[in-house]
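Lecture notes, part 5. Sequence design as translation. It can be helpful to think of inverse folding as translation between two languages: the language of shapes and the language of residues. The source text, in C-alpha cells, appears below.
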C-alpha cells in the first residue's frame, strides 16, 4: 500500500468491502417483499417489475458519469456523495405511498450506488501496488458474491417480523453508517495535480479507444 495513506491495508479493504456491499444489497434485499409491497401500495405486477428495471437502468447509465466525476472531483468526494444519494433514495422507498415514489426512490438508489464500484476500483488502483491490486480486487469479488445470496434471506426475515418498509430502512441505516465511517476513515487517493477537468474531450478520451 502507498506510504502516504494513514489507514492499514486490512482497514481499507474492510471499508471498501462495506461500501461496495451496499449496491449489491439494494438489488435483491427487497425481492421477498414484492407481493406484500404490491398489496400495500395497490400496485400491479408490471409496476413492481419496474422497480428492478429502473434500478438497473439508472445504475448502468449513471455509471458512465461516475468515472469522469471521480477523475475530476476525487474518489472520496464521489463515494460520499453517492452514499448520501443512496441513503436518501432508500428513505424515499421506505416512506413511499405509491408507485411513483417507489420508482423515484429506486432511481435515486441506483444513482447513488453506481458511483461505488467504479470509484472503489479506481481507489484500489490509486492506493495499492500492482500485486496488491490483484489481491484486493479478488477478495472484494469473492466476498461481494456472498452478499447477493444472503440479501433475500435477510430481506425476508425483516419483512416477516417488522414489515417491508424496514428493508429499505435497513438500507438507509446501513448507508448512513457507511457514510459516517467513510467520512472519518476513507482517504483521498487522487491528488489534485493528477485530476482531469470534467470536459467532453476527456470523457471521450476515457471511453473511446485511441
Amino acid at each position: 500500500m502507498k506510504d502516504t495513506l494513514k489507514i492499514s491495508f486490512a482497514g481499507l479493504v474492510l471499508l471498501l468491502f462495506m461500501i461496495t456491499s451496499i449496491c449489491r444489497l439494494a438489488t435483491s434485499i427487497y425481492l421477498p417483499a414484492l407481493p406484500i409491497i404490491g398489496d400495500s401500495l395497490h400496485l400491479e405486477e408490471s409496476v413492481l417489475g419496474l422497480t428492478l428495471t429502473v434500478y438497473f437502468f439508472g445504475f448502468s447509465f449513471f455509471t458512465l458519469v461516475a468515472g469522469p466525476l471521480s477523475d475530476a472531483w476525487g474518489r472520496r468526494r464521489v463515494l460520499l456523495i453517492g452514499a448520501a444519494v443512496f441513503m436518501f433514495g432508500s428513505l424515499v422507498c421506505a416512506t413511499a405511498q405509491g408507485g411513483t415514489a417507489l420508482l423515484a426512490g429506486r432511481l435515486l438508489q441506483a444513482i447513488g450506488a453506481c458511483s461505488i464500484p467504479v470509484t472503489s476500483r479506481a481507489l484500489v488502483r490509486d492506493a495499492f501496488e500492482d500485486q496488491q491490486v490483484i489481491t484486493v480486487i479478488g477478495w472484494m469479488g469473492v466476498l461481494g458474491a456472498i452478499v447477493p445470496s444472503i440479501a433475500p434471506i435477510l430481506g425476508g426475515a425483516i419483512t416477516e417480523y417488522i414489515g417491508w418498509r424496514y428493508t429499505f430502512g435497513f438500507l438507509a441505516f446501513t448507508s448512513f453508517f457507511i457514510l459516517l465511517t467513510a467520512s472519518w476513515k476513507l482517504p483521498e487517493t487522487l491528488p489534485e495535480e493528477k485530476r482531469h477537468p470534467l470536459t467532453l474531450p476527456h470523457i471521450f478520451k476515457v471511453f473511446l479507444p485511441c
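The translated text above is only one of many valid answers, since several sequences can fold into similar shapes. The chain has one domain: 9-207.
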